[in-house]
Design brief:
By secondary structure, this protein is an alpha/beta fold. Helix content is 53%, strand content 13%. It is built from 15 helices and eight strands. The strands form two sheets. Strands 2-1-3-4-5 form a five-stranded parallel beta sheet, with helices on both faces. Helix 13 runs antiparallel to helix 14. The radius of gyration is 20 Å and the shape is globular.
């Protein structure tokens, strides 16, 4: 393909996503706050790692940002010094794949538009495993025309590409998706704890739930894999989960929508973060209800 893609942020998710762009024939230039990570990407997989963000932007038709927060994206997209807007070619597309704040992203879209280009938001769901296989679900916000221009790039990373509305809509959808995910995780862990106290095997319970109406993503893809195994290494941090739940609650407040359960879910996740400290995987959230129950989940099968 002739499209050149600049990919900013090759962390747990960004690395396999950028790798899939290379596999699909895109010319990929990468950048990361940790210069050694960008260099390692090029050494292991190919592509290039320009010395500056200005150079990356100037050589790219599409710039992808996959960063922890909207604050990081705002810094990268600044228009002075060594930042993307200082080198972005008019007519380029910026795809912000960060799980960010819709209001901040809308302001950034206006800044990019003033520079003669267009920004869409396209956060993803599916975790590291589906990032590796290129089977992410991508929730997109932006004009139909801009999304269609970006579709070949998006299709290299995901199999489900859904336009949710105008800029910011994709990020709103992602935050609400993670709210549902966190709620399902917490209630599932509580159920396993109740069952274990009764005498049921949490492994058996997980299998039965997965064959029954209580099945959800956490019971299918997290309980045995990361909680009962005691691995707690899914690749998505608890800090980012709390951030996403905070965005979901902010949307609720802005719309004057009562969110009693969502608020409790967010507070429990924040309490787990305070208890466990930084650097924890989001599946370590299970340790909070375990601590409250005074027991650790142990699978016999």
């Amino acid at each position: 393909m002739s499209t050149a893609v600049g990919f900013v942020g090759v962390g747990n998710m960004g690395w396999p996503m950028a790798a899939n762009l290379l596999k699909r024939g895109f010319a990929v230039a990468v950048a990361d706050a940790r210069r050694e990570v960008a260099n390692n990407f090029v050494q292991q997989l190919g592509g290039s790692a320009p010395d500056t963000l200005v150079q990356l932007a100037a050589s790219s038709d599409v710039v992808v940002t996959m960063l922890p927060t909207s604050g990081h994206v705002a810094t990268v997209l600044a228009d002075g010094g060594d930042h993307v807007l200082a080198g972005l070619k008019p007519g380029s597309i910026v795809i912000d794949m960060t799980s960010g704040q819709p209001a901040v992203t809308q302001a950034l879209a206006a800044r990019v538009a003033a520079a003669g280009s267009v920004l869409i938001d396209a956060p993803v769901s599916g975790g590291v495993s589906r990032a590796r296989t290129g089977e992410l679900a991508i929730m997109v916000g932006g004009s139909v025309e801009a999304i269609e221009r970006a579709r070949p790039v998006l299709a290299a990373m995901g199999t489900t590409i859904t336009r949710c509305g105008e800029v910011g809509a994709g990020q709103a959808m992602k935050a609400l998706n993670n709210l549902v995910s966190a709620g399902g995780f917490l209630i599932g862990i509580e159920a396993l704890l109740i069952g274990q106290k009764f005498g049921l095997d949490p492994g058996l319970m997980t299998d039965v739930i997965n064959a029954s109406t209580g099945m959800n993503n956490s019971t299918q893809k997290k309980f045995r894999q990361f909680v009962l195994s005691r691995g707690f290494d899914s690749g998505f941090s608890l800090e980012l989960m709390v951030k996403d739940l905070s965005i979901a609650l902010e949307l609720g407040r802005e719309g004057a929508v009562p969110t009693p359960f969502a608020a409790q879910c967010r507070e429990l996740c924040a309490a787990a973060l305070a208890m466990l400290g930084p650097g924890q995987d989001h599946t370590a959230l299970a340790k909070l209800p375990e601590a409250l129950a005074g027991m650790e989940l142990t699978a016999k099968s």
